[in-house]
Amino acid sequence: MTVTLDRLRVGSAPDSWGVWFPDDPQQVPWQRFLDEVAASGYEWIELGPYGYLPVDPARLADEVGRRGLRVSAGTVFTALHRGPAVWEETWAHVRRVAELTRAMGAEHVVVIPSFWRDDRTAREIEPPELTAGQWRHLASGMERLGRELRDGYGLDIVVHPHADTHIDTEEHVGRFLDATDPDLVGLCLDTGHYAYCGGDSVKLIETYGERIGYLHLKQVDPEVLADVRAHGTPFGPAVRQGVMCEPPRGVPALEPVLAAAQKLGVDMFAIVEQDMYPCPPEQPMPIAVRTRRYLRGCGA
Questions:
Q1: 142 Cβ contact list (under 8 Å, min separation 6)
Q2: Pairing of strands 44-46, 219-220
Q3: Which fold has domain 8-298?
Q4: What is the rounded distance in angstroms from the CA atom of residue 96 to the CA atom of residue 22?
């Protein structure tokens, strides 16, 4: 029997159209993304990398509104483990995203920690493990970010564990959550990234459910993932290898994840993402249509 997932608001994001950067000739134009995401049956979208969609609030509101779309969140990348010295530069970027996010009526900012491997070249740019001092900087910096966005913009931050960042595995996610104030810092659970890094999404929801304020729905191909792990392949090349796949072909199974999120009893966005940068321009929409149909079959 299909469970009714009436607390989950399903959407998609530029990432599902192969968009990783504000401007890149390998990416589809933003107009095509908006046209196709609406035609695929989604109502909610994320802003994606700042500058990909128009940053003028009036123009963006018109563009999304006339397609029947609404914005669920903005996204920022941060390197707060580097300490107070990076705060001003970080805040300058976050503030622009926050202003546009609030203007679009959204209430969340998805915060992605900086990569320790370059996402274009795969070159290692920092050690993969943080020192105790860097963990303290990361926790206090995220709390400050959460407080500033809550008090200044009425927005909640949801931190996104991500492959090739310092918040990735079950151990690191638990350490981060235990070190941060629940009133200031929530979690965006990306089911694909968490599986990529060896985590169990259902277990995380059942253990830290009160911290999870947002979902990214994604699956990984277990055979490709095994090869990625065997060869130590960085995340960018792994995506080009096809490590992220169309549901329900991969792991984790999404039905138990959705059911566990529904049991939390709170309204929550569940935004579909399928990393596939770069990809042919005709590839994303058929996948998006099939994925939306699949999620409806799950009750969402």
A1: 78, 80, 111, 157, 159, 176, 180, 184, 185
A2: unpaired
A3: TIM Barrel (3.20.20)
A4: 14
Per-residue pLDDT tens digits for 216-263: 999 999 999 999 999 999 999 999 999 999 999 999 999 999 999 999
Give domain limits for the chain. Answer: 8-298
Angle between helices 201-208 and 170-179 (to 10 degrees): 20
3-state secondary structure string across 232-264: CCCHHHHHHCCCEECCCCCECCHHHHHHHHHHC
CA 109 to chain centre: 10
Q: Show the tokens assigned to 31.
A: 């107009």
Helices (H) and strands (E) in the chain — how many of each?
11, 10
Is the separation of the CB atoms in 163 and 117 below 8 Å? no
Nearest alpha-carbon partner for 219 in 189, 187, 188, 254: 254
37, 169, 279, 293 from 27: Cα distances, Å: 15, 30, 8, 25
pLDDT at 137: 98
Whether the Cβ atoms of residue 157 and residue 127 lie closer than 8 Å to each other: no
Positive or negative, the CA dihedral 232, 234, 240, 244 is positive
For the segment 147-173, what is each residue's pLDDT rounded down to a tens digit?
999 999 999 999 999 999 999 999 999
From the list 299, 270, 196, 281, the residue with the least C-alpha distance to 12 is 270
For residues 163 and 112, is the Cβ–Cβ distance under 8 A? no
Residue 117 is classified by DSSP as B
Q: Is the peptide bond before 234 cis (omega within 30 degrees of 0)?
A: no
